[in-house]
Amino acid sequence: MKNIQKELANIKKGNYAPIYLVLGEERYFIEQIRETIIEEALDEEAMDLNFSSFDMEEDTINDALFEASSFPFFGDQKVVFVQNPYFLTGKKVKNAPNHNIDELEEYIKNPAEFTILVLFAPYEKLDRRKKITKSLEKNAQFIDVSSPYPNEVNRYVKEIIKEKGYQMTDGAFQLFMERTDGQLTKMMHELSKLFLYHVDSKKITKDSIQYLVPKSLEQNVFELNTLVLNNQVEASIEAYHDLLVQKEEPIKIVALLISQFRLLLQVKILKKQGYPQGDIAKVLKVHPYRVKLALQNVQRYDQKLLSEALDYLIDADYKMKTGQIDQELQIELFIMRFAQQSKVYS
């Protein structure tokens, strides 16, 4: 995160690199970089003429480089964005255009002085065996926009709240984390609404978070899952019926239950093998906050119980998709069956 703030500060000072390589999937930071470069490097009246964006899954790198090499109109600077440069990875894209990578290598050696070329690579990692990747890593200004760890997210968001002159209690912040899944992009989006709502008082409360920050289907199913794990059968069925009233499809709910039980089982296995929380998130390629929540629950449950529950849900999912069983009834049966099985393994 320090790398990002440093580069944003340089851009705002007018210290531009001719080529940037932006690697990672955190949408909030990606948008910050996009907006800052456009706002700082381009004159507003000539923005339409001197800004271009190319998607490498649809456009060729040759088109992007032709634009980058062409002189700007009514201005001193051009900005060219290259989205999804999958050729820097091992990814295969069906029906993608042919790219002349040699031309990109030549441009990297001698970039246009009047153009800022930005490659946005929304990937976890690149294929560093490739010549073009090595060339970019050597010559381009690298910006890491991978998803930060939960403690970094917490610290960053709290700093933003303080800088804007607002206050949020620890309890309110915990609820805010839960409603946004601890994802920075979601948090910053919802924070803008909370700032506007509390523009006079400057004090963000739990009540306003409950009112303004909606629960996603994933969060509702997570709460359902928590009730199931705690063997609260009546409350579980009531929560499930509430989702049906909201027109949520049983097949979507089952898919999310499968995802959550699979995560619990995987976290339990890796924890037994001695993996720390951060490494579990990396191995499973899930958000660290999800792993943190899973670790809070998983110690109480037998591995075989979780495994049998997952098998049951996967079988139910197949039968629901093939029309063999009543979709709405199947989840109720799972809730009751899990409560019975929990007694066996307790």
UniProtKB/TrEMBL annotation:
Residue ranges constituting the DNA polymerase III delta subunit-like C-terminal domain according to the UniProt record? 218-338
Question: Which GO CC annotations does the UniProt entry carry?
Answer: DNA polymerase III complex
Per its record, what are the GO molecular function terms? DNA binding; DNA-directed DNA polymerase activity
Annotated signal sequence is none
Q: Which UniProt keywords apply?
A: DNA replication, DNA-directed DNA polymerase, Nucleotidyltransferase, Transferase
Catalytic activity annotation: DNA(n) + a 2'-deoxyribonucleoside 5'-triphosphate = DNA(n+1) + diphosphate
Q: Which domain of life is it from?
A: Bacteria
Example of a GO biological process term: DNA-templated DNA replication
Q: What is its EC number?
A: 2.7.7.7
Q: Which InterPro entries match?
A: DNA_pol3_clamp-load_cplx_C, DNA_pol3_delta-like_C, DNA_pol3_delta_N, DNA_polIII_delta, P-loop_NTPase
DNA polymerase III delta N-terminal domain ranges (all copies): 20-144
Q: Which family does it belong to?
A: Belongs to the DNA polymerase HolA subunit family.
What protein is this chain from? DNA polymerase III subunit delta
Q: Which organism is it from?
A: Candidatus Atopostipes pullistercoris
Q: What lineage does UniProt assign to this protein's organism?
A: Bacteria, Bacillati, Bacillota, Bacilli, Lactobacillales
